[in-house]
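Long-time lurker. I teach an intro course on protein structure, and each term I like to show students one example going from raw sequence to a predicted 3D structure in token notation. This year I'd like something fresh instead of my usual example. Would anyone be willing to generate the tokens for the chain below so I can use it in lecture? Attribution to the forum is fine with me.
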Amino acid sequence: MKVAIVSINQPSFNASLKLSSFMSDFDVDIYAKEGFSSSEHRVINYQKLDDIMGLAWQKYDAIIAILAIGAVVRKIAPFLKDKSSDPAVLVIDLALSKIVPLLSGHLGGANELANLLASRLNASVFISTATDQTNTLAFDMVAKKRGWRIENIKCLAKISNNLLNKKAVKVATYESIFDSLPKKDNLELIDFDSVDDNSVVISPFGNFENLTLRPKIYIGIGCNQGTTKEEIEEAFAEFIENYKISKDDIALFASFEAKSSELGLLEFVKSLGKEIKFFKKEDINSLEMEFSSSASKKFFGIKGVAEPSAILASHYKELVIKKVALHKKITLAGAI
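-- Reply from a regular --
Happy to contribute to a lecture. Here you go:
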């Protein structure tokens, strides 16, 4: 994590040096007025705060200001854009005894960083985020901790307010994911056809106007011997277009070990910058569930390729896209 510690005078510069010594596991730059330097810490000098704030906004994951809160608010105001992209901003007092995560508490990581520094400095933290104060489920934090993308984040405030007010919130997702959610007291599992304005969607595919969390999807793939990279690319493009799947949400590909020497398949996966995992016959046949009929049962004595491979590779072990056969050569399936 790249962090900028911003000071403005001798006392705050001294505090910056001390704070930096507690952050040796971070990539830290200290910003100080001209004339201040250190042989032990990386110091970047400036004349006016306005000269550095725009650069810092783009360059760092977090900005820690040892300044007055009002001054910080005024200096960062022109750069505020979106909670999904703004850096974490924290304000710390000169004694390093009080920490305020000012901006991007959840997605930017300001709250987490504040708590970490508080534990190292033996400092107190003032977190203003309501869901944190009331121990209420925060869907943005669920997504962040699990590495999921978020779409339509503008809808988050309404959902969070409903939960804070103890109102029911509908969640359109799969049982395995719903069961894994914390603090489900006011959550109701619904199917995707029942989505309304008071719903959250958790799915790796489909188009929605609601707050949508995109869990990782694991793609099981089978192909005939000698299938080319170009043929797989064409089929895959059709598959993700039909299901509205983003390549960014694909965790990895999976298949049967007999396909591990298929050059077209290997080249295709490599071209996407992804990995593929191959499973043995006994792994596939150990699954106690029914799969779509497959020619692989006749040729290899296994229950299938695309569907069971996707299940085996997946996190929640739930099939969400049954096998799709394309161009009479390629099969694709998806699991979460």
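Some talking points for your students: Residues 202 and 213 are 5 Å apart (CA to CA). The first helix runs from residue 10 to 21.
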